[in-house]
Specification:
Blueprint (H helix, E strand, L loop, with lengths): L25 E6 L2 E6 L8 E5 L3 H8 L11 E5 L5 E5 L5 E4 L1 H12 L9 H10 L1
């Protein structure tokens, strides 16, 4: 899969290329010093978690299993018995719920570099490896 971001030109929101086009999923928006996360099931009208860009690498590391559960300081990533995941913002009551397949698509995209912030060391390293 490509690690290019498939941003919506009108909104900047994107999801993993591993997501089925008709499937709801984790949707992300890089907005300067902030990262916004929402669920496509809500058609842009539902809750959203916003974190500082400096916290994004720790969230991805935890989501990928490269860091201990609970190690990031901005959200709780809670796995359910059915394989689904809930994201709980630690600074508010906002929670987002994803099915097993939605979360699996996000994790696969994260592992492939699709959610690396452009211009970061990780993103630049992946780009040079692909060249």
């Amino acid at each position: 899969m490509s690690n290019a971001h498939a941003h919506s030109p009108a909104t900047g929101w994107f999801k993993s290329s591993f997501s089925n086009p008709s499937q709801e999923c984790v949707e992300v928006n890089f907005d300067g010093d902030f990262i916004h996360i929402r669920d496509t099931k809500d058609d842009g009208a539902g809750p959203m978690i916003t974190i500082g860009a400096e916290d994004w690498p720790a969230v991805l590391a935890e989501a990928l299993g490269h860091a201990d559960t609970g190690s990031n300081r901005v959200m709780r990533i809670e796995a359910g018995a059915d394989g689904g995941v809930q994201l709980h913002a630690l600074d508010s009551s906002v929670a987002l719920a994803y099915t097993r397949s939605e979360w699996a698509a996000f994790v696969a995209g994260a592992a492939d570099g699709e959610f690396d912030r452009p211009g970061t060391a990780t993103s630049l390293a992946r780009s040079s490896q692909a060249a």
